[in-house]
């Protein structure tokens, strides 16, 4: 009985460590969605057009691409937990900066810094979790990151809604001497400090400790996370053996016959790009603007954005429960089909928009249809591409190139995200229905791509990939 009890104790401890590391994902979700509530406020406050606002919203993503790119190297030099502390501090400082900008370019600078911190966290979390999680639970514990992201999105939508309500429903109204949108951006400092606190309490990854020659500490951490019934000397020898034979893969290892890269690397990049090209982040960055444009007031539009986040969380739980049962490929195909249909429906609904005075209105059935279609789209994305792409990227590459290929695919994802985010305000101002029709086309193409090129990885050993 005693061993059973300690086993549960260890698992509880691992779950705690994993959840702490995944707070980086929470920050990523929180920051990426917090701008949603503040966009209109920033635009009015600094009196800028759709191109400038698209630039300020999206610039954080370029910071994230750089942060993701350098995060892995920093983690090898400073250690996993120390790098998390650096990311948390950068994020906390940038939150205060975003809250008190004196010009639009100043705000853009703080957004880049926040983006860099999030990019780091987006790489550190999954890497650390994979290194401390016992193999039997790695898949489910790895899903914590995506779960934390969607929770971060939801919480930030709720906080934005509450701040807007306190300020009388308008984000440009004053609240204790600052505009409401400034408080929205400043609120990011709370999860940043929480992340810092947890990063100071969780143990360093055993792999990193062995890599830097601190075997005695590694032994203590392994005993903590894997339990005393595991052969710890054997585990240490195994990690040392892997580290000796493991060369850090570089870009030259990814070279191949297909336009300069290995075909599997292109498949990873395409999965990353399609995940963004269906326009999912438009819903999370600009949805409050979208609902205001069809005649819903500010604080209600923030509440609708919050309901989309709840649907996103439900979809993520569905994906976590199905990904090991029905497999990766069927989930992606179901998702692509559902997204294509719901996006096409939204495009049709928006085409009925009429301009009344200086505002846009959707007539009766189309307004409701647009809302339902947008939420159905979020559900299909969350239960498929939202989770499955990250699972696939973690397991589809051969061992010898995994780290480098994952870094390249993640950077491609941030760049694709940036492209969609920076172009949406201008595209929507030009022709909203056509913009949605374009996302629907990408969803259809993603279906054809998965059907032809993506192989099922369910139940296969990591050593068999490639």
TrEMBL record:
NAD is among the record's keywords: no
Entries under SUPFAM superfamilies matching the protein: MFS general substrate transporter (SSF103473)
Keyword annotations: Membrane, Transmembrane, Transmembrane helix, Transport
Boundaries of every Major facilitator superfamily (MFS) profile domain copy: 17-458
Source superkingdom: Bacteria
Compartment annotation: Cell membrane
Topology term for the membrane: Multi-pass membrane protein
Main location: membrane
Family label: Belongs to the major facilitator superfamily. Sugar transporter (TC 2.A.1.1) family.
Protein name per its UniProtKB record: Sugar porter family MFS transporter
Originating organism: Nonomuraea rosea
């Amino acid at each position: 009985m005693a061993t059973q009890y300690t086993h549960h104790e260890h698992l509880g401890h691992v779950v705690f460590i994993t959840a702490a590391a995944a707070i980086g994902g929470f920050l990523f979700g929180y920051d990426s969605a917090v701008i949603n509530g503040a966009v209109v406020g920033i635009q009015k406050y600094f009196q800028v057009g759709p191109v400038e606002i698209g630039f300020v919203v999206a610039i954080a993503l370029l910071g994230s691409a750089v942060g993701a790119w350098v995060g892995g190297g920093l983690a090898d030099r400073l250690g996993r937990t120390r790098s998390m502390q650096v990311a948390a501090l950068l994020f906390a400082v940038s939150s205060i900066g975003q809250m008190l900008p004196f010009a639009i370019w100043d705000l853009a600078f703080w957004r880049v810094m926040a983006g860099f911190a999030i990019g780091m966290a987006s790489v550190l979390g999954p890497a650390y979790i994979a290194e401390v999680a016992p193999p039997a639970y790695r898949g489910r514990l790895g899903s914590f990151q995506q779960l934390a992201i969607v929770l971060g999105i939801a919480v930030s939508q709720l906080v934005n809604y509450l701040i807007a309500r306190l300020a009388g429903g308008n984000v440009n109204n004053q609240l204790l001497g600052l505009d409401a949108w400034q408080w929205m951006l400043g609120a990011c400092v709370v999860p940043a400090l929480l992340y810092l606190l947890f990063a100071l309490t969780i143990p360093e990854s055993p792999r990193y400790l062995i890599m830097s020659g601190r075997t005695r500490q590694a032994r203590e951490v392994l005993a903590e996370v894997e339990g005393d019934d595991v052969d710890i000397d054997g585990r240490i020898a195994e990690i040392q053996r892997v580290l000796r034979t493991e060369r850090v893969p570089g870009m030259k290892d990814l070279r191949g016959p297909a336009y300069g890269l290995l075909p599997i690397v292109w498949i990873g990049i395409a999965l990353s790009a399609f995940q963004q090209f269906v326009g999912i982040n438009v819903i999370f960055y600009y949805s409050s603007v979208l609902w205001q444009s069809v005649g819903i007031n500010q604080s209600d539009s923030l509440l609708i954005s919050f309901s989309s986040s709840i649907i996103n969380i439900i979809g993520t739980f569905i994906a976590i429960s199905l990904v090991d049962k029905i497999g990766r490929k069927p989930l992606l195909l179901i998702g692509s089909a559902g997204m294509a249909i719901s996006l096409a429906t939204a495009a049709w609904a928006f085409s009925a928009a009429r301009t009344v005075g200086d505002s846009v209105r959707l007539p009766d059935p189309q307004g409701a249809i647009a809302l339902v279609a947008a939420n159905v789209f979020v559900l299909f994305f969350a239960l498929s591409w939202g989770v499955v792409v990250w699972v696939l990227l973690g397991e589809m590459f051969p061992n010898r190139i995994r780290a480098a290929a994952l870094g390249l695919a993640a950077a491609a994802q941030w760049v694709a995200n940036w492209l969609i985010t920076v172009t949406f305000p201008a595209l929507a101002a030009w022709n909203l229905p056509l913009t949605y029709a374009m996302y629907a086309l990408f969803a259809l193409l993603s279906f054809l791509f998965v059907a032809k090129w993506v192989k099922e990885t369910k139940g296969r050993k990591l050593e068999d990939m490639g």
